[in-house]
Amino acid sequence: MTRKRITLSLLMGLSLLSSNVLLLKENSALAKSVTPLERTSKTSLVITQVDNSSPETGVNPESDFFKQAEAEFNVLGEYGKDLYVLYRLVEKLARANNLDERNWRFRLVNQYEINASASELNLLTFYAGLIDQLHGDYEAIACIVGHEMAHHEKNHIPLKVKLADEMERLKQEADQELLAEVQQNQKGSRNVVGGFIGGMVDRVVGTRGLASATGRTLDQSLDNMDAAERQQAQKRAKEIYEEKLAQLNQEFSAKVQEQELESDRFGYLYIARAGLDPQGCFRAMDVLNDLPTSHLPGITHPSTPERIQKLKAIQAEFSTANLVAEGKANLQNSPTPLKYAVSRDGQSIRIESRHNRNINDVL
């Protein structure tokens, strides 16, 4: 069995782009919360990739490969164990659903958010809070993984980028309108305006990463206003926000929610083909259903009860046995575990496509 050694440094302080479903913009708060894969020090983690092209006699090459991978990820402690789980799930879903024609990337953000997202080119992002809430229920985690993979496979990312741009425009317009009104009436500042309207949009529309910071900015700024002024500013901010939100709803809501339901559908099908219990999707939804915002209307996601009803319809539509058979056929056509390495961004794990080969074997 041939082994290829790849050195991973455990490097600290790398910046990240925000991986939020909506805000695909740079977010310094998120960067501080990511557990980096490398650090500039003399200590390094050596990951040995196992090449199964020439397995040893009497050894199950797939089992040996995954045991070696697990040992290497586990060097990173609990974080590494979670990375290994995500690697195994992305890898299995890719091969079982003919999604292994491309490279995939995934990363784990060490921040307690119940969230996951798909962004950039084949990048999957998962948050520690989500993994913690579903810890040990690998079918439920797999359903989330499949959902995010479907966003890429079904080409949903361009619309999300467009919506992110519109969200930014909305905030700027609301900021400017409220700022002009406040300046006409009293000594308001841009911090009051931007913080308040930004926080409202973040909380209701579903973006993340700004709510706590803007909330603190708002509290500090409102200290400079009397009670009547604060009440007036809050009322007007709500009115402006609702006007802008109505515009976004009209243009984006139906299509974006349709994409979310499509990703739910294929997430269910993906894990069934991988031989995992599709009931995991319902268990994942049960966790989401307990979130305070799960029953509220929003631009990006249907309510969780609606998503559960759609999943029940999918369950009735498809035979699990037939899906498992399809997945087994796909796995027979792609029997070799997909290799992995640290992506060149230094922040994510790259899972190689089934076409990964050494250049010397090609030429």
Please mark out the parts with pLDDT under 50 across 5 or more consecutive residues, or reply none: 1-34, 38-59, 188-196, 203-222
Biggest sheet, strands in spatial order? Answer: 4-5-3-7-6
Percentage of β-strand residues: 5-15%
- SS class: alpha+beta
Shape: elongated
How far the N terminus sits from the C terminus, by CA atoms, comes to 22 Å
How many DSSP E strands? 7
Largest beta-sheet details: 5 strands, mixed
* Approximate helicity band: 55-70%
Mean pLDDT: 77
Rounded to an integer in angstroms, the radius of gyration calculated over CA atoms is 23 Å
Number of continuous helical runs: 13
Give the topology string: H per helix, E per strand: EHEHHEEEHHHHHHHHHEEH
Describe this structure as you would to a colleague:
The protein has 363 residues and is of the alpha+beta class. The chain is 58% helix and 12% strand. The protein has 13 helices and seven strands. The strands form two sheets. Strands 4-5-3-7-6 form a five-stranded mixed sheet. A two-stranded antiparallel sheet has the order 1-2. Helix 3 (77-96) crosses helix 5 (138-153) and helix 6 (157-185) packs antiparallel against helix 7.
What's the short version?
With 363 residues, the protein is α+β, with helices and mostly antiparallel strands. It is built from 13 helices and 7 strands. The strands form 2 sheets. Strands 4-5-3-7-6 form a 5-stranded mixed sheet.
